[in-house]
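G., the chain you wanted modeled:
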Amino acid sequence: MSSPASAGRRGMAENPMTRLEPLLGEWRLETSLGDVAARASFTRALGGAFLLQRAQVDLPEAPDVLAVIAADPVRGGYLQHYFDSRGVVRLYAMTFDGTVWTLLRDQPDFSPLDFAQRFTGTLSPEAGTIAGRWEKKDPGRDWELDFELTYVREG
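Predicted structure as tokens:
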């Protein structure tokens, strides 16, 4: 027989933000764009209701990034609200199943959709790396590699 307290816990929905905990921390970025000093971090914000992602890249054509990740209560998964040092603002649909992390932008949002983008990254079993790739798709074309991006956990 269950207690009223345990019945109440079963009725509470899991906070979807807790599934993103493997991303938390400091990361060194390795990219196919060349030998570049680049770092990223993921931290909780506002009591864990959001995740902040920051990236600094020492390459003029690669912007620094601030992204706010939130649960998507309508479609499930997450939304990544993306802002960069060029003034670009985008909204990506995001999933993370504990191993595979995806970002997809294939609809106009705060800026025109001149091309679609997607990222797919795979978290290693020991959670020390995320091996990923950004792809782009011009209208009427197939997806093509934009650049490879690997996150390597620091510390």
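The chain has one helix and ten strands.

Shout if anything looks off.
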